[in-house]
Amino acid sequence: MRYFSKKLLVSIFSLLFFFTIFGTVTYAWFSLAKFNQLSNLNIELVTGKEFQISLDGINFHNEISTTEIEHFIGSKAKLSDITSTDGKNFIFGKLKEDEGIPEANTDYLSFPLYFRTTRKQKFVYLVNNVSSLVQYDMVRKGTYAVSKGILWTADNTFQNGLEADNLIRTGEKYLLNASDAIRIAVIEEQIENNIFDNRDSNDLLSKIFDLSGNPDRGYGAPFGGISYFNKKHRIQLDPPTEIPTTVYKLTEFDDTNPYLPLNRNSEILEMIQTIEIDEYGNSYSIGKVIINIWLEGWDADCFNAIYSDSLRIQLEFRSGSPTNYTLKQVIN
Questions:
Q1: Is 16 exposed, middle or buried (0-12, 13-18, 19+ CB in 10 A)?
Q2: Where along the chain do its domains lie?
């Protein structure tokens, strides 16, 4: 993984999450007295009109307030560079195994998200990745992870790609983006005490998303961060051989029908009928996921300097029918 670990203290102001580091930078086996910060981390959740979302499963809205989010993650949550192959279970780097197991909202962000609807489109998808089209200071509809970027001067020559000439040389300036090392896992869970939810654990979805859309620079790449680390410390730390299944391309929908998905790439949950009803007597269907967000230490773009970056994340969700529906079934 990224072979060093730092802590981010989280403060929430207005409608933004701001993450700031206080303390030391701790390498996997070294401790360095150093101050860095990752600031201005803005996370927003966007839905369509066809369903509502909630953090507590009780108070549902079309938007989630800062107060609700702060209630779940606290105002002093921290982030470390960690790693996961399933988005549920996290570990530190192999050289920091004696530090125990990373903790939710201490080493990574974790919060529940409930969805409910009275409509027949009961499947929810993460959609519309526009990361490549968005700049940090832009406001745009869609899903994205973007950052300002850090212009970093390399202090060692290292391999930064598969080709022999993909080198970053000592003294060269290189643009790093914290957004390239972010991972977002969405873990489906059953709703407790729902008598209609008879699924077992094998029926529940669990997905890791890399919104950079670049699998070539993903988990365990033998260049980038690990090459730099090995050159700087004159060792040979090998990348892992087990590569997690990661979604790089989100589900798109049929041009002629907004509720017909073309694949299940980013299907994240099914809302299951409950005994709850709205003021008109319509039954609610409800679903729940856990969202985990972390800095993936084994990502090729995970460098120490990204903690000086500013990051914005927005997730857009959309409901639809299952992919095995025909267009006629969806219309009817």
A1: middle
A2: 4-331
